[in-house]
Amino acid sequence: MRILYFSRDYTPHDHRFLSALAETEHQTSYLRLEQNVVAYEASPLPEKIKPLAWRGGKSIVHWHDGPSLLRDIRRILQAIRPELVLAGPLQRSALLIALTGYKPLVSMSWGYDLIYDAQRNALWSWMTRYTLSKSSVMIGDCTTIRNLAVEYGMPAERIITFPWGVDLEKYSPKGDSYQASKNQGFFTLLSTRGWEPIYGTKMIAEAFIKAATSRPDIRLVMLGNGSQQAEIKQLFQQAGVINRVSTPGVVNQNGLPQYYHDADLYVSASHSDGSSISLLEAMSSGIPVLVSDIAGNAEWVTSSENGWLFPDGDVDALAQKILRAADLRNDLAQMGVKARKLAEARANWKKNFPKLLTAFELARQAN
Predict the structure, then answer these.
(1) Helix, strand or coil for residue 278?
(2) pLDDT tens digits along 232-262
(3) How far, in Å, CA of 214 to CA of 82, rounded?
(4) Do the beta carbons of residue 53 and residue 262 sit within 8 Å?
(5) Residue 311: enclosing H or E segment and its boundaries?
(6) How far apart are CA 215 and CA 231, in angstroms?
(7) How far is the C-alpha of 94 from the C-alpha of 35, rounded, in Å?
(8) 358: alpha, beta or left, given left = phi > 0 and alpha = psi -120 to 50?
(9) Whether this model's pTM surpasses 0.85
């Protein structure tokens, strides 16, 4: 089957899906709407994936670009005549396909498109409903996304839900995941999200500063970068804790597992998530997690069992939970074991990916 994969940018999630599609019998072409909008994937496209040249994919897209992009996407569809289009997020790539009327369309929710974008205003709400009304099938990564899609008019029987999942062999416990930091006398926190407001990264910095004033053994590793980088580093500098913070920048997929192995606790203060891949990577690596109490996270984390939840947006509560976790560091190994078991049961990418192929068949039957 000829498939057109149309995404907003080229991210680790896109690389994951395209790599898996490249191993199937399907002929997959790749179309990119924008460039460097979100976390960029450094790995090249899989060899069997055919990139398509068009007006988009070179810079950030603005509203006034819409008409010319729509004309060119019609040209692309006429030229390659895909038997199925897989597109997302809903109000961007999937919307453009919906506006052409091309079917079958499998829309892919990226989480933030339903949790955040759909609720911006009446226009974004309309774009969400319109795209879903033109979608043969929608795929999402958690029950929260499924329920929101139903609220916006997508029939429940045409929604396929599965966590994108992780490579359980790549992200796995390595002996005593806590020994490295214990030997140095440190309690190490790990943040892997982008330094952007939606991910609450500044909150992590503020909570760390509060916790670090009473616990000199606490250290923080913040991967990635983003628009708040200068502001956050200034906070560390002003608080006098910059020497207790490591900021390696963007780390590729090959380097990530070691950071999980060296951490005592994974921390995320994101305000919007479905089934966060970073969260699943941490759990698969056998370390407990401390994350914001939003619906997507609550589907994975049971407080005091495999990690902790804290009220979204509450810096003081996050700082207190960090201190609590540090006090309970002798119990973390067992919590990490439970986190790993849950990942094995629900977050195995190799077992979950075939559900996308099920979505393809459902979409073809619907048309």
Answers:
(1) helix
(2) 999 999 999 999 999 999 888 788 999 999 9
(3) 60
(4) no
(5) none
(6) 23
(7) 17
(8) alpha
(9) yes
- Supply the range of the domain harboring residue 104: 2-165+349-366
Contact (CB, 8 A) for 149 and 109: yes
**Direct distance between the N- and C-terminal alpha carbons of the chain, in angstroms, rounded to an integer:** 15
Per-residue confidence (pLDDT) for residue 39, from 0 to 100: 58
Chain segment 25-82, per-residue pLDDT in tens: 999 999 999 987 555 677 889 999 999 999 999 998 999 999 999 999 999 999 999 9
Dihedral (CA of 255, 257, 263, 266) sign: positive
Judgement on whether residues 154 and 200 belong to the same structural domain of the protein: no
What pLDDT score was predicted for residue 197? 93
pLDDT at residue 287, as a whole number? 95
- Do you know the residue count of the chain? 367
Residue ranges of the chain with per-residue pLDDT less than 50: 177-183
- One domain, residues 118 and 209: no
pLDDT for the residue numbered 251: 86
Nearest to 166 by CA among 295, 277, 252: 277
Tell me if 142 is assigned to some domain: yes
Where does the chain have alpha helices with state H?
12-22, 66-80, 95-100, 112-115, 122-133, 143-151, 179-183, 201-212, 229-239, 256-261, 277-284, 295-298, 315-327, 332-346, 349-352, 354-366
Q: Is 172 a member of any domain?
A: no
Strands 265-268 and 289-292: parallel
209 lies in the same domain as 77: no
Spatial neighbors of 100 by CB under 8 A, at least 6 apart, are 70, 73, 74, 77
Q: Tell me how crowded residue 184 is: count the other CB atoms within 10 A of its CB.
A: 12
- 264 in Cβ contact with 290 (< 8 Å): no
Count of domains observed in the chain:
2
Own/partner pairs, 155-158, CB within 8 angstroms, 24+ separation? 158/362, 158/366
Report if residue 67 sits inside a domain: yes
Distance CA 335, CA 23 (A): 35
Q: Is 215 part of any domain? A: yes
Largest CA distance in the chain: 64
Distance CA 321, CA 247 (A): 22
